[in-house]
Amino acid sequence: MHYAAAHGRLDRVKWLHANTTEQCRYDTMAVAARNGHGDVVRWLQHNRPESHKSMTHRIMDFAASRGFLEVVQVLHEERKEGCTTIAMDGAAGIGHLQVVQYLHAHRKEGCTPAAFDTAAANGHLAVVEWLHEYRSESGTKAASFGAAVNGHVEVVRFLLNHRDSGYVDEGIRLAIPNLLVKGDSVVLPLLLTDCPELFPLFSMAMAAENGHLDVIKLLHPTRPREDIEEALVRGAKNYPAIVDYLLENDKFSTPVLKSAVDRARTLAVSVKLHQHILPEANTVNVFGLAPSPKPCSRARRKAKKPMLLARRQQFACT
Asked: What is the pLDDT of residues 228-264, one digit of tens each?
C-alpha cells in the first residue's frame, strides 16, 4: 500500500484497503505529499490514520517549493501542521505564482526577501511583479545582481523602472564586472542606457582583457580617456582584433603605445603598435630588447688611459 500511495495509484490503494489487511507505513502520507499526489493525501487523511505519524510543517514547505498546489491545498484544509516562510519563498523561487497567491490568501506565515530575490535571479518576471505589488517584503541587492548576471533582461528592466530603494543600484554595480568579464551582450546595452553611472572606471579595459570585441564596440563611444587607453594596453597582450579596432577608431599618445608594446605577446601586434608611434619618438624596440647604453665620454677617457701609459713606456724603453 505504501508504494502504491507513493506513486499516486489511488485505485490500488483503495483496492488494498478494501481487500487486504495490509497497513501503511508511518510516513506514507508524507511520501505521497512529497511526490505531489494530493488526491492520495486527502484519501489517507480520512481512511488510514497510521500513515500520518511523520507529518510536520516541512511537508507543506516542500510541496510548495515543488509547486504542488493541490497538495498545499489539501494540507491547508485537512491538516494542522501548517508551514513556514520557506513555503512561499520556495514557490516564488521556482516561478509557481499560483502557489504563492494561494499561500498569500490562506496562510499567515508570509515570506522573506528571499522570495523576491530568488524569483528575480531565476527570471520569473510575473512572480516579481506580483510580489512587488502585493507583498511588503522588499528584495535585496541579490535580486538585481542575480537577474543581471543570469541574463534576465526583462526582470532587470522592471527593477530599474522601480528603483525605489538603493538595493537595485547596489546589485547592478556588483553585477557589471561579471558581465564585462563574460562578454554579455544582452543586459549590458540596457544598463549602459539606463544607468551608465554605475559602470566602474576601467569597464572597457575589463572587456579588452578578456577579448570581448563586441563589448568594446558597445562601450567605446561613452568611456573616459583613461579607460580607452587602458583597454589598448590590456588588449595588446592577447587580442590583435581589439588592438586593430582601437587603433583604427582612436588616437593614442606615445607613452600609451609603448606600454601596449611592452604587453604585446606577438610580433604582429608589436609592429602594428610601433607603426603608430610618432616618428620623432619612434624609439620603441619591437622585440622588447633593451638597447645597449653608449658609454659616456668620461668612461671612454678612462678606458684610453691604460693604452696611453703603455705606449709611453714603450717609447721610453726604446
From this structure: 999 999 999 989 999 999 999 999 999 999 998 888 8
The b-or-e profile of 100-111 (16+ CB within 10 A means b, else e) is bbbbbeebebbb
* Per-residue CA distances from 19 to 15, 16, 27, 141, 267 (Å): 6, 5, 22, 59, 87
Residue labelled with grid coordinates 490514520: 49
Quote the distance between the C-alpha of residue 88 and its chain's center: 24
For the record, the C-alpha cell of 66 comes out as 515543488
Q: Report the distance separating Cα 237 and Cα 211, nearest Å.
A: 10
- What distances in angstroms separate CA 153 from CA 3, 122, 124, 130, 290, one per listed residue? 45, 11, 11, 18, 50
At residue 265, the pLDDT reads 79
Distance CA 202, CA 227 (A): 5
Cell of 165: 530603494
